[in-house]
Design a protein that fits this description.
The complex is a heterodimer of chains A (about 220) and B (about 260).
Chain A: E1 5-16, E2 22-33, E3 37-41, H1 48-55, E4 63-68, E5 71-72, H2 78-81, E6 85-88, H3 99-104, H4 122-128, H5 145-158, E7 163-167, H6 175-186, E8 192-196, E9 208-211
Chain B: H1 8-16, H2 19-27, H3 33-60, H4 63-84, H5 89-115, H6 124-155, H7 157-165, H8 170-195, H9 203-210, H10 215-248
Helix pairs in contact in B: 4-5, 4-6, 5-6, 5-10, 6-8, 6-10, 8-10, 9-10
Chain lengths: ~220, ~260
């Protein structure tokens, strides 16, 4: 049985209104099926992170369209569609409080209120990514880059959304932590994962690669 | 007994004291002597013109004219706030206007009507000076608050967008920024209330006392005006930000860069 398409981008173009205008990518099209683990690759500046930000409505494309599930992404649907995706940025800013406050914060938003029970899974996830529970009460400013990254990954996983968007999540992780995180992500068979990486080897659990060459 | 009138000699004496600050500026070679002189000339001309106009307004004491004058003051404050915040006038002039109108009108009409119990709410003697005091403080609070709000969201753009990505509505995403900006905006008024009478004697109070009235009467007026100022600043700043939301954030919740004068 063929899996259904969950994300479809059609002739997507992004350019910034500079003088002269800066074209990030032009006429980019791709389809992603449910449960696929995609390595989004391409050279620096090709617009890999921009693709993720377009899916989240954080960058508004100059042309083209995005379909998530059966909904076109627009200014009305985006407020619900963001509830279908969890995002881990490249350098997560965890704010000024403790790790626990950072993790609990999104559960105060209306869209996530019903998922507050997911916080029960926090000890399991902490163990799976190799973090001590004591770290939850540490100020985020005292955490290393790798610890911050893993806290951000846990926060995304707790939101339990069908689509995971990961922007170079292993960039601040050592090899042991990377293995733990990738083992955890590889086991999420029911989730659609798009991971931005420089090349496919950086995402060994990927089931497919989408390459953006930046010179469309 | 009224306040002592200032003779021409008295006014000349007032200007003569400027020799001291100007002398310090020249001595310290601070390159602002030109700006200071322009400021003194502008202050004199502006106050003279306003004085002449107010004489006319007070003489006529026409409710429409008085109301119109307050609207003019609000319009000037509107543009002045936006420019001081480094924001674009064409984006913010319209949404800021009702915020200033609300923040000025509510405490002003309450003070004149409910506290002073004047039968005519638009009486020039009260409406214009009290309106000016409330508006002047709203102006200061709004410059601090709006500048704080927009520069914080702009500075933390990635974190702000991360919060949107986590599913926050625009209102949920701006709440911490608005709260911080609101605190910054009202802090000077709170600090003034904490030290009033001990550190400073405000202009209104000194005016009433110099007019030959009982200091207790001046105190009562000052309490009324401080509460009105605090109420005005508390209304105006959040109202301005909330009313400007559709013009400063895209329908996707992203902060427009073109709202800043130094758009980059």
């Amino acid at each position: 049985m063929q899996a259904s398409t969950v994300i479809k981008a059609k002739k997507l173009s992004v350019s910034f209104e500079l003088d002269p205008p800066k074209i990030i990518f032009k006429d980019l099209s791709f389809s992603i099926c449910a449960g696929e683990h995609i390595a989004l690759t391409g050279p620096s500046g090709a617009g890999k992170s921009t693709v993720l930000r377009c899916l989240l409505g954080l960058i508004e494309p100059s042309s083209g369209e995005i379909l998530i599930g059966d909904q076109f992404l627009n200014s009305k649907s985006i407020w619900n569609l963001r509830g279908e995706m969890a995002f881990v940025p490249q350098e997560a800013d965890l704010g000024g409080g403790t790790s626990r406050e950072f993790i609990e914060r999104p559960f105060k938003y209306h869209i996530n209120l019903a998922k507050i029970g997911n916080l029960n899974r926090l000890p399991d996830y902490m163990k799976m990514v190799g973090l001590d529970m004591k770290l939850l009460d540490s100020k985020t400013g005292a955490l290393s880059g790798g610890e911050k990254q893993r806290i951000a990954i846990i926060s995304a996983l707790l939101l339990d959304r069908p689509i995971l968007l990961l922007d170079e999540v292993a960039s601040a992780l050592d090899s042991d932590s990377t293995k733990l995180v990738f083992d955890l992500l590889a086991g999420l068979k029911e989730k659609t994962i798009i991971g931005v990486v420089h090349d496919e080897s950086k995402m060994p659990f990927a089931t497919r690669e989408i390459n953006i060459n930046g010179r469309c | 007994m009224g306040a002592v009138d200032l003779s021409t000699t008295g006014m000349i004496m007032a200007y003569l004291v400027l020799i001291i600050p100007l002398g310090i500026i020249m001595w310290q070679k601070v390159p602002i002597a030109g700006r200071v002189l322009i400021a003194i000339v502008r202050m004199t001309l502006q106050l003279l013109l306003v004085g002449l106009y107010l004489q006319f307004v007070f003489k006529l004491d026409n409710a429409w004219l008085n109301g119109f004058w307050v609207l003019v003051m609000i319009g000037v404050a509107d543009v002045s706030i936006i420019r001081s915040c480094g924001l674009r006038v064409r984006v913010f002039a319209l949404p800021l206007m009702p915020a200033l109108l609300l923040g000025t009108a509510i405490p002003l009409l309450w003070l004149v009507g409910a506290v002073l119990r004047r039968p005519n709410l638009l009486e020039a003697q009260y409406l214009i000076p009290v309106g000016g005091m409330i508006l002047g403080n709203c102006l200061r609070a709004n410059i601090i608050g709006m500048k704080n709000f927009y520069s914080s969201v702009r500075r933390d753009e990635k974190s702000f967008q991360f919060v949107l990505a986590q599913g926050a509505t625009l209102r949920e995403a701006i709440t911490p920024y608005l709260s911080e900006a609101f605190q910054a905006a009202i802090s000077p008024t709170i600090a003034t209330m904490m030290t009033i009478g001990l550190v400073s004697l405000p202009g209104m109070m000194t005016g009433v006392i110099m007019g030959g009235n009982d200091p207790m009467l001046a105190i009562k007026y000052q309490i009324g005006i401080m509460i009105a100022i605090f109420t005005g600043t508390a209304i105006t700043m959040p109202a301005a930000v909330l009313l400007a939301l559709p013009r400063s954030f895209s329908p996707f919740g992203n902060l427009y860069s073109h709202i800043f004068k130094d758009n980059r």
